[in-house]
Amino acid sequence: MISAHHLHRSYSIGRKTVEVLHGLDLHIAPRERVFLCGPSGAGKTTLMYTLAGLEPPQQGSVMVDGQDIYALSLRRRALFRNKMMGFIFQNYMLMPELTALENASLATAIAGSEATERVVALLERVGLADRLHHLPNELSGGEQQRVAIVRALAHNPSIIFADEPTGNLDSRNGAQILDLLFGLAEEGGKTLVIVTHDAQIASRGDRVLTIRDGVVAAETGR
After folding, report:
1. Of 28, 100, 102, 168, most Cβ neighbours within 10 A?
2. Which of 31, 34, 32, 29 is nearest to 47 (CA)?
3. Overall average pLDDT of the 58-67 stretch
4. 8 A C-beta contact, residue 100 and residue 165
5. How many whole angstroms separate alpha carbon 183 and alpha carbon 26?
């Protein structure tokens, strides 16, 4: 599903150049649940954004479902990303003026009642049947993250990218969110790529890739 070859990415901080990705290679199979781990500043989030077509590498290539995504124009890449990928963020990224239903419907590529029915059904599945018309500030952190999960799944993408999706939640809510995400992803046959600093959470994946010094320094799996 995802194949990256010889990725390089660096940033300039004043007169200093910091190389975040240093010739990194990886392969992720369809339906696999892969966690990206490593110390702070190791490049986990940069790698995720690069795999998702959001942050071009200075060298190297990323193939997603057989498509070299950085060979596409910006417009075609955005269309490909919107069709193939869903995103979940640590800080939820909900629009404060929109209800749970409206937020969850933002990413859907299907217009009309069919899309609304799908989003409502998903919100009901994650336990938010009575919260459809509540604003984000009327929802708990766990409820907001459930809305974010539905938003990521609403347009039925093949790949879900999640950046510290349980980072703002206590352990109980974090475990519930991961259970929901895993269950819904498995039902839909989706590939999961999740950034986390939590080794216990990462142990629930099919594979854990530890990023260090800009490369995959270690790999563990079931």
Report:
1. 100
2. 34
3. 95
4. no
5. 25
Q: 69, 88, 51, 79: which is closest to 164 by C-alpha? A: 88
Torsion, Cα of 49, 55, 57, 62 (10° steps): 60
Distance separating alpha carbons of residues 47 and 9, to the nearest angstrom: 9
pTM of the model: 0.90
Distance (Å, whole) CA 23 – CA 214: 7
Residue 74's contacts (CB-CB under 8 Å, 6 or more residues apart) are none
- Alpha-carbon distance of 168 to 90, in angstroms, equals 6
**Quick one: what percent of the chain has pLDDT higher than 90?**
55
Q: Cα separation of 222 and 208, whole Å?
A: 9
In terms of pLDDT, which residue wins out, 108 or 135? 135
